């Protein structure tokens, strides 16, 4: 599934997928940590394998788990960082968290306009959407109010068990009548109260990939999933459809953890992944929009119908990463307390 010449972290060791003479020396490598699943497989095809060919001698080593910010923070604070470049959600790397990061070299990467120093590079855009299994529901759910209507649409709901910007709190508030343009600051208590109305019908997922798996496999009749995961299911024959109304638009970013062993190589890989000429290559095989505003996606590409374009929804919002970063501790405490009730 992964490209030739790539080394993948699996369990406690590293397994080389290359059929060549080896992974090379540590100084000639760069370790990337991503969210895993089919997104990271697509990143391998779009970025890592071509990068290795373009930057002869630099091998890409991979790990997963970057969607859990606690994992990154713990390693950085312990001074035990094994990663050079991380793909993170919008709720990580702003404000005080910048002290946990190494700034990018703007002489190597294309920093955002007007910035002489940056700690985050926009990588790709995605959407949090309502996905459902058409063979398991009678009718077509079209919005978050339908998601919370277990009488009209009986069955389990799949949600990601994380207090991060996955869209579950926003979905609850939209279903409870909050306008999309006034969601933030989130009324967490109100969102949890609304989620409580379907708590017995929730199947919790531990990853975005599993959330989509639960819906496509019929374990849940619908779920809050990322559009890219829905596309991956459809491509592989999964029984899943998307309702775009009330979608949440988000952005993933690249960051360099402080203490990264190969900062120079991290900048080189980041430059390749975010360059206007190559950034949209991922969108050709996986439905996320490019993070570089100069990158363009051809409308004839197979993924275009699943790309998070504004015309797909009249009631959309932007996932507010800064709010999540500022309120992460409080949100996590309330969410965990609610789960245990």
Summarize the structure.
With 341 residues, the protein is α/β, with parallel strands linked by helices. It has helices at residues 37-54, 69-77, 144-147, 168-175, 188-196, 208-216, 227-235, 263-274, 321-340; strands at residues 7-10, 13-16, 29-34, 59-64, 85-88, 101-102, 121-132, 157-160, 202-205, 222-226, 241-257, 289-290, 317-318. 29% of the residues lie in helices and 21% in strands.
Task: Please describe what this structure looks like.
With 341 residues, the chain is α/β, with parallel strands linked by helices. The chain has 2 domains: 158 residues, D-Maltodextrin-Binding Protein, domain 2 (3-Layer(aba) Sandwich); 152 residues, 3-Layer(aba) Sandwich (D-Maltodextrin-Binding Protein, domain 2), CATH 3.40.190. It is 29% helix and 21% strand. The chain is built from 9 helices and 13 strands. Strand 3, helix 1 and strand 4 form a beta-alpha-beta unit.
Keywords:
SBP, globular, periplasm, alpha/beta, D-Maltodextrin-Binding Protein, domain 2, 341 residues, 13-stranded mixed sheet, 29% helix, 2 domains, disordered N terminus
Overall outline: globular
Structural class: alpha/beta
Q: Which CATH class of the largest domain?
A: Alpha Beta
Mean pLDDT: 89
> Approximately how much helix is present in the residues?
25-40%
Rounded to an integer in angstroms, the radius of gyration calculated over CA atoms is: 20 Å
The N- and C-terminal alpha carbons lie at a distance of 41 Å
Q: Major sheet, described briefly?
A: 13 strands, mixed
**Beta strand count:** 13
Assembly type of the chains comes to: single chain
Task: Output the CATH homologous superfamily of the largest domain.
Answer: Periplasmic binding protein-like II
What are the low-pLDDT stretches, counting only 5+ consecutive residues below 50? 1-25
Could you say what the CATH architecture of the largest domain is? Answer: 3-Layer(aba) Sandwich
Subcellular location: Periplasm
Signal peptide: 1-23
InterPro entries: SBP
GO cellular component, one term: outer membrane-bounded periplasmic space
């Amino acid at each position: 599934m992964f490209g030739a010449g790539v080394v993948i972290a699996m369990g406690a060791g590293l397994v080389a997928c290359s059929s060549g003479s080896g992974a090379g020396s540590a100084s000639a490598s760069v370790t990337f940590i991503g969210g895993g699943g089919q997104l990271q497989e697509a990143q391998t095809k779009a970025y890592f394998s071509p990068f290795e060919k373009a930057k002869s001698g630099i091998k890409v080593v991979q790990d997963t788990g970057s969607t859990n910010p606690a994992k990154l923070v713990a390693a950085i604070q312990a001074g035990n960082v094994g990663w050079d470049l991380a793909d993170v959600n919008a709720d990580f790397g702003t404000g005080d968290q910048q002290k946990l990061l190494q700034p990018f070299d703007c002489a190597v990467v294309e920093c955002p306009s007007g910035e002489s120093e940056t700690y985050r590079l926009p990588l790709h855009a995605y959407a949090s959407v309502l996905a459902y299994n058409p063979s398991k529901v009678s009718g077509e759910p079209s919005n978050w109010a339908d998601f919370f209507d277990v009488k009209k649409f009986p069955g389990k709901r799949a949600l990601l068990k994380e207090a991060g910007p996955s869209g579950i709190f926003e979905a609850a508030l939209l279903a409870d009548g909050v306008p999309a343009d006034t969601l933030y600051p989130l009324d967490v208590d109100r969102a949890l109260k609304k989620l409580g109305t379907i708590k017995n019908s929730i199947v919790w997922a531990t990853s975005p990939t599993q959330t989509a798996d639960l819906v496509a496999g019929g374990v849940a009749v619908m779920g809050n999933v990322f559009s890219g995961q829905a596309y991956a299911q459809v491509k592989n024959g999964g029984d899943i459809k998307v309702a775009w109304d009330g979608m949440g638009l988000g952005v993933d970013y690249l960051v360099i953890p402080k203490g990264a062993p190969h900062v120079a190589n991290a900048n080189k890989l980041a430059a390749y992944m975010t360059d206007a000429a190559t950034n949209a290559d991922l969108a050709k095989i996986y439905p996320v929009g490019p993070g570089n505003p100069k990158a363009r996606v051809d409308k004839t590409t197979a993924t275009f119908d699943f790309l998070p374009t504004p015309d797909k929804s009249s009631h959309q919002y932007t996932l507010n990463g800064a709010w999540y970063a500022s309120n992460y501790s409080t949100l996590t405490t309330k969410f965990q307390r609610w789960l245990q009730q």
